Amino acid sequence: MYKLENVSKKYNDKYAVQNFTLTIESGSITGIVGKSGSGKSTLLKLLNFIEQPTEGQIIFEDKAINDASKKVIRKYKEKIGMVFQNYNLLNNLNVYQNIALPLKIINKEDQHKVNELIQFVGLEDKAKSYPSQLSGGEKQRVSLARALVRNPDILLCDEATSSLDENNTETIIKMLKNINHEFNITIIFVTHELSVVKQLCEKVCVMEDGQLLDIIENRNKSAEKNTASYLENVKRSIEG
């Protein structure tokens, strides 16, 4: 699906991401964790083709994107859905209209698809409600359904549970697992919440200062807190 080979992204004279090498397999669930300023947001922009690498190359579906035309990159972007921390819903549109918006933009209305997704995220009784009438968890479920409406191959989640309480976080995690299982969608989950990646992700990439420190296989064992380095804390949390 994705292959990053010694990818770096520099703004002015400072590297936001440096010498990043990673392969993300189709149908996998991968976590990207790191403290604030570790380079997670820049990496997400690279994966979403909003930014181009300064050095190295990104290979997507066995094709290097560095020299790809804008038309080809637009086609790649169509394969990607995004879920944001702050939902990014339009307040003047109801639930149905927010979910249908990506289809409306490309003049491809599909009422059956929209209603199917409303049912999938459990908001049948909220279809005509507006964002101001929804809880945070309900807003994120709308955002999730909207990201799926164009049948993406990849779902990029940017701190998708950071604004939610424990119960709503568990709901979103279950939905993401179902999405991965039922639709075989590759999920890349960017977060600072170790408890979430422990429950959701098959492998966890640890970032610090723009670099990939380690890739940890998730064994789903119980964890104990410690006062060691960030990387050691992540390893202990994920591996037990």
Indicate the low-confidence ranges by residue numbers. 221-227
Major pleated sheet:
6 strands, mixed
Number of extended strands? 10
How large is the count of helical segments? 8
Instruction: Please identify which CATH superfamily of the largest domain we are dealing with.
Output: P-loop containing nucleotide triphosphate hydrolases
Write the layout of secondary structure elements.
Layout (H helix, E strand, L loop, with lengths): L1 E10 L2 E11 L4 E5 L6 H8 L7 E6 L2 E2 L5 H8 L2 E5 L10 H11 L5 H10 L15 H13 L5 E5 L7 H18 L2 E6 L2 H7 L2 E6 L2 E7 L12 H10 L1
Parallel strand pairs: 3-8, 3-9, 6-7, 7-8
Antiparallel strand pairs: 1-2, 1-4, 4-5, 9-10
What does this protein look like?
The protein is an alpha/beta fold. It folds into 2 domains: 159 residues, Rossmann fold (3-Layer(aba) Sandwich), CATH 3.40.50.300; 67 residues. 35% of the residues lie in helices and 26% in strands. The protein is built from 8 helices and 10 strands. The strands form 2 sheets. Strands 6-7-8-3-9-10 form a 6-stranded mixed β-sheet, sandwiched between helices. Strands 2-1-4-5 form a 4-stranded antiparallel β-sheet, covered by helices on one side. Helix 3 packs parallel to helix 5. The protein is globular, with a radius of gyration of 18 Å. About 3% of the residues have low confidence. Keywords: Amino-acid transport, ATP-binding, Cell membrane, Membrane, Nucleotide-binding, Translocase, Transport. InterPro entries: AAA+_ATPase, ABC_transporter-like_ATP-bd, ABC_transporter-like_CS, MetN_ABC_transporter-like, P-loop_NTPase. This is ATP-binding cassette domain-containing protein. GO terms for molecular function: ATP binding.
